Amino acid sequence: MSSKKHFVLGFCLVILFVNAASIDYGTALTKSLLYYEAQRSGKLPPNQRVQWHGDSALKDGKDEGIDLTGGYYDAGDNVKFGFPMAFTVTMLSWSVIEFEHQLNSKNELKNALNAIKWGTDYFIKAHKEPHVLYGEIGDGNSDHQCWERPEDMTTPRNAYKIDEQHPGSDLAGETAAALAAAAIAFSRSDPGYSKQLLTHAKELFDFAKKFPGEYQTSISVAGQFYSSSGYEDELLWAAVWLLKATQDKRYLDYINDKSTSSGGTRSMFSWDDKYVGAQLLIAKDLLEKKFPGKESSLSEYKKNAEEFICNCIQKGNSNVKKSSGGLLWWQRWNNLQYVTTATFVITSYADTLSATKNSLQCTSGKVEPLQLITFVKSQVDYILGENPRKMSYMVGFGTNYPKKIHHRGASIVSIKKDRTPVGCHEGFTLWFDKNAANPNVLDGAIVGGPDLSDNYNDDRNNFQQAEAATANTAPLVGVLARLAS
pTM higher than 0.90 for the full model? Predict the structure, then answer.
C-alpha cells in the first residue's frame, strides 16, 4: 500500500475515533440514573445522591388507612400516576435484563436496580389485595393550579384505586409487566425479593384478565393526563414478561391465542402503546429458537416488530418522519419519549440479530446489525448535542442544555437552602415567571425536545417541549450502557 493510502486510511480512522469519542456516554448514563433520585416521592434513603431534593408526600395513603408513600412523580408536577410509572419501571428493568453486563462494567448496575426498587416497593404497597391496585395519588387538576416544591405540597393527596367493581386492565396489566420484568432483573442479586415481585405480577395479570376495562373509567382524574387507548397491548406485554419470568405454558398459550390480533405494525412504542415491545420480545425469542413448533403461529409478531424498525431507519413501507437535522419525529408534544423507546428497541434487536448471525430484511434491502447500531448512535448523539442547535436535550449534560425546564422542584430554591414554605400561587410569581435558570439542575432529565424544524424554546411555560418525564429517560438507560461499553 502506498504511503499516501496509508495516510488517508490513518486519517479516516482518526476522524472515526474522534467522532466516536466526542460524546461521553458513560457520563450520560450516570446522569440518566441520577434523574430518578430527583423524582423520588416519600422518605429519602441515607444514600440519596441528589441533595437539593428532600422528603415529600409522607402522608400518602393516610386517607385510605394504608401507607402509599414512595414511588415517583411522573414529570414536572407532584402527582404519582401509576400507569406511566409502571411503564418506566418495566423499561428500567428491561435495561438491566438486556444490558446487565454493560451497566456493571460502568458501575451503574446497583443504581439501576435501586431505581427499579424505588418503583416496585411502591407497587407492592399499592397492591394490598389480589384484586385491588392503587393507581394514582394526587390530582392533576388541583396540582397544576399550584407551583410548589413537593416538600411544601398543599394540594389534595387523594388515593385512587381499581378493584373488581372499578376495573382497569391496562393499569393492572402494565403493573404486572413491571413486576415480572423486575423479578427477572432481581433474580440473581435478590432471589427472595424476585419471588415476591413475581407473586404480585401473577395476581395482577389474573385480575386484569378476569375484570376487563380501561382504567380511566374507574380513575377518571387520570384520563385527562394519561388516558389509555385500550388494554389488549398491556395484557399481551404482561403475558410476554410473565412467560420470560416463569416459563409457564399458560402465558405462551395466551400469546399464541392473541397472535391473530397481534397489533399490526405500530407507529410508535410508548407508555400507552406496548405492542412494539411485546412483538420485539417474541421476535427475539424466535431468532433464538425458543419456540420450537410455534414459529409459524408467532411469525406475525416478528413481522410487525421488524416493520416498525424498518420504518424507523427509513427503509420501510411507512417511514417515520424526520426533522431536517435528522431526528425521528412523531409529534410536537414530548417527541423525545418516542425516540428513546425506538432506540432501545432497535439496539436490543440489533444485538440479537448479531448473536444469532442474522440480518434484518426491509422493503429496500438487507440491513446488518452494525447499521442499526449506527442509526441508534445518530439519534442518541442528536439528543446529547450533535444537532443544529448544538444543544443537549439531557439536562446537565454538556454546557448547553435546557436551563428553564418545566419542573416544580428544580425551578424553586432547594428546601435545604431556604426552608421558608413557598405557597401555591406564590410559586408562580416568585419562581415560575422568573426569567432565570432553574436553581437546581435536574441531571439526566430528557425534555420533550425540539420541533420538526429542530427549534427549541427554553421556557418554563413551554411544557410541550420543556417538560421531562420518567418514561422519557428509562429506555435510554440501557442504550447508553450499550454505547458506553
Answer: yes
